[in-house]
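Entry for the shared binder. Reason: the reviewer on the internal report wants the predicted structure included alongside the sequence.
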Amino acid sequence: EYIRRQVNALAAEGKLSAVVLAVLPPAFMLYLSVAQPSYVSPMFNDVRGIAMLVGAGVWLMLGVLWMRKLIQVEV
């Protein structure tokens, strides 16, 4: 039981880290969209910017899936 609680605590820490890493990039993009729209407008108006957003979204999803796989611990 003691080991199970330790594993659950470490898994919870990993889950929180995964959530922070997954939410931080979109939240920062939202912040920049409000604070300095001229900084992020090329990302939505240029083909290269849209390609970078798609690439970033793919890498973000791969990272989330990888973290999810790492967090799953069975005792």
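Summary line for the report: The helical segments are 2-35, 37-45, 47-71.
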